Amino acid sequence: MTISVHTNKSALTALQNLNRTNDELADVQNRVNTGLKIGNAKDNAAIWAIAQGQRADIGALGAVRLSLERASSISQVSLAAGETVSDLLVQLKEKVVAAMDTSLDTNSRTALNSDFRSLLNQIRQVVDNAEFDGANLFDGLGGNIQFLANADATSSLTLSTRTLALGGANITLTANASITSVAKATTVLARLEASIANVNQALGNLGSQAKQVDAHLDFVSKLTDVLEAGVGNLVDADLAKESARLQALQVQQQLGAQALSIANSAPQIILQLFRGG
Predict the structure, then answer these.
(1) What pLDDT, on a 0 to 100 scale, did the predictor assign at position 198?
(2) Left, alpha or beta for 2 (phi > 0: left; psi -120 to 50: alpha)?
């Protein structure tokens, strides 16, 4: 091998090896710092694109989950209000049946009617306040409410409105109904029994829809977890492996630096060739 002060092939080779080690060390340090083996398109364009697509779906499913959580809250408030209305109707029946007793005097009948009207007023108040985030399924003022069911917003779940207002399709008793006589009480009883059946059926239908919402919400949550795990499998770094690799590269870096130092000192042997005897 030619000895020259202009060209040091050994030093160039050592420098190339050291630079390569430094590049690999920088890559490993980046994976350790970020926890990602694929942090950008430069690392692996195909895998990065797949991961980004899955991240978009995960974000969209987050919006679906929020929509379904709102649906669940609305249905829970509505069911609680509906069950209260059903209980009040049961209490109304007790008052109406009592008012059909022909032996009652005027004062007793008046007291029963007062309780009856008070219960009617409670039903009205419950229906008016069965609201969550501006949505009321029982006041009869709005249409059915649809909620997101998939990440593409092409499918939806519906909560159907059903009026429980007095004098409506389900509760046919009017707000001014009274039981001040046996005849009135008899008429009210027929309407009341029909109203109880209507309300219970309406609550059953709403309960089925609420159950569907909760089941789909559970599915969306599980699907989100699966997608997040899938993205992790694609891009997450194996930190135990990277730690071992980091230590090995640090040793290689130190050895490369020493090799370069030795190679750089090799031309000094020329001085000995020209040293006087």
Answers:
(1) 95
(2) beta
Question: Between 248 and 223, where is the model more confident?
Answer: 223
Partners of 166 in the β-ladder: 171
* More confident site: 35 or 226: 226
DSSP E strand stretches across 62-192: 145-148, 156-159
The mean of the pLDDT values for the chain is 90
Write out the two tokens for 253: 């870096």
- State how far the Cα of 140 lies from the Cα of 161, in Å rounded to an integer: 7
Outline which parts of the chain fall under CATH 1.20.1330.10: 45-235
- Cβ 171 vs Cβ 89: under 8 Å: yes
d(Cα 212, Cα 186) in Å, to the nearest integer? 40
Q: Would you say domain 45-235 falls under CATH 3.50.50.60?
A: no
How many CB atoms neighbour CB 113 within 10 A?
19
Rounded to whole angstroms, how far apart are CA atoms 220 and 177?
A: 47
Please compute the mean of the pLDDT values over residues 160-177 and round it to a whole number.
Answer: 92
Full 3-state SS string of 171-211: ECCCCCCCCCCHHHHHHHHHHHHHHHHHHHHHHHHHHHHHH
Percent of the chain with pLDDT over 90: 64
Alpha-carbon distance values, 49 to 35, 42, 115, 165 (Å): 18, 11, 69, 54
Residue that is written with structure tokens 């059915």 in the block = 144
